[in-house]
Amino acid sequence: MGILRKIDGFIEKVEGWILIVTGTAVGVMILANAIFRFLRVDWFGSEELTMFVAFWLYFVGAACASRDDTHISADMVSLFTSKPKVRATVNLIKTIIGLAICAVFTVWCFNYVTWQASMGAKSSVYKLPVIISTIPILFSFVMWTLYLIRDIVRNVKTIRSAGAAAKTEGGN
Question: pTM to 2 decimals?
Answer without folding.
Answer: 0.83
